[in-house]
Structures are given as structure tokens and as C-alpha cells.
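From the shared-data thread, chain only:
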Amino acid sequence: MADEKMPATRSRGAKAHTDTRTGTSAGAGAGAAATGGAKRGAREITPPQTWKERLAALKNVPPFLRLIWDTSHTLTITSLTFRIIRAVLPVLTLYVGKLIIDEVIRLTGAPNNPTTWHDWVAGGRLHGITVLVLAEFTLAIVADVLARVVAVTDALLARQCANATSIRLMKHAATLDLEDFEDSELQDRLERARQQASNGMGLMGQLFGQAQEVLTIMTFAAGLIVLAPWLILLLAITLIPAFAGESYFNAANYQLNFTRSKQRRELEYIRYTGASVETAKEVKIFGLNAFLVERYKTLSDDFYAVNRALG
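Structure, as C-alpha cells:
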């Protein structure tokens, strides 16, 4: 009986010795990482990509739109249809407002105007402006309703796209070898893919929103050509600062998210390790609580400093 228990005892002793060495090595490696992270401090924002590289990145837009279309034809058509209507509504609202002003000028300048409100109503002179005011009010309600419908439709479509993307990502991960997951570059790519899938496909809303704004600008331009062609120049001038600002900050934000994938992955790992039930025992045994908290604080402060600099 004693001989039978010996291997089990030795096995448990060896396992405990191995766990102790592993924990010591992990603590030493974590300490080195903390030292390196503390030395790095807040980093400078990486300059945005060149215009050539940005234009080259547009080749990824058609496959992305194809993914959205394949996810749900009905939701895609619904979202685009309502966005087209919303793009035209601002011009219609301004035009009805112009008609209201013209009608007010006509009524005030007409001869033999009634002197009392009852005479205005009884004479039927307010019928035209009443219809225009109701039309303006109706357009405002329709615009608000369409905005809510588009928001709900985009949310449903984004969720379906996120689910489809997550499934594709898991299927692709299943085809990789175990040694592939040791590659840090591949880990960063997977992390960025998971982030995009879990963030509700915000790129879809940005693309659809920009297309809607372009259509709105085109309708404004068409109206200006008819009413006051010289205002086209003023419209173009007002768009330049907005375009330059959006281009810069979008490129800087993308570059920031792209280059910080490794740090974000480390941040999520530390948060999971320090607050997970699965790792709570090891963290407490080896006294890693203080280190994990300090390391997380260093990384989170670093992220905050860079985001504040970008803002």
C-alpha cells in the first residue's frame, strides 16, 4: 500500500514544485513587463497615413458592403431607402420655409388688408399660409420618425453583421494551427477583428451616414443652382474646414487604434486575470494583486493620455 501511494505523492510534489516555479517565473516576467511599461509612459500619437495609403484602403469598402448586403437584403434596402428620404427632407423643409416667407410678404403687401383676425379667417386669406405651416410641421415630424426608424434598422443590421463576422472569425480561427496563435502579429489582427465585431459595426453607420450627407449636399447644391448659383462657392468654402478636420481626426483615430492593438490586448488580459474566478486562486497565492492593479493603472492612464492628446 505504501509503494502504491509513493508515485501519487511524488506526482503531487512535483506538480506543486512546477507550479511554484511557474508562478515565480510569471511574477518575474510580469515585473519586467511592468518596468518596461513604466519607462514607456505616455506615447506620442502616430502621424496619420498618407493620402495614397488612405485611398488604397478604399479597396476594402466593396467587400465590406457586400458583407452587409449578404447579411440582410431587406434591412439594407430599408436603411438605404429611409436615408435617401432623410437626405432630401432638409431641402424640402427649407423650400417650404421659403414659401411661407413669400406668402407672409405677399399678404402684408396686399391692398385692403382686413383689420381683425376674424376678417382674415373669414376672407380665406390665411388658407395658403396655413397649409404651408402644416406642411412644415409634417416634414419635421416625418424627419424625426425617419431618424428613429433608421436608428433601429441600423442597429438590427449592425447586430446581424456583427454576428456573421464573429461566426466567420471563429471558423477562420478553427483552421489555424496552434503555433499560429503564438505569432503576436496574428494575435493583434484577431484582436482588431474581435473589437470590430463586438463594437456593433460602427463603420457601417459611418459609411451610410456619409453617403446620406453627400446626397444632402448634392440636393442643396441643386437648389442653390436654381435659386442663387453664386452661393455654390460659399457652400464649397464652408465644407473645406469640416472635411479637413474630419479627415485628420478619423485618420489619427484609426492609426491610434491600429497601433495600440498589442497594448489593448494586454489591458484586457490583465483585467481578465485580476477579476476572473478562474485565475483568482493563482493571483492570491502568488500575491499578484498589487502588480496587476498597478500595471492596469499604468496602461489605462497611457490610453487616456493619448486619447486626450487626440481630442
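The two ends are 72 Å apart (CA to CA).
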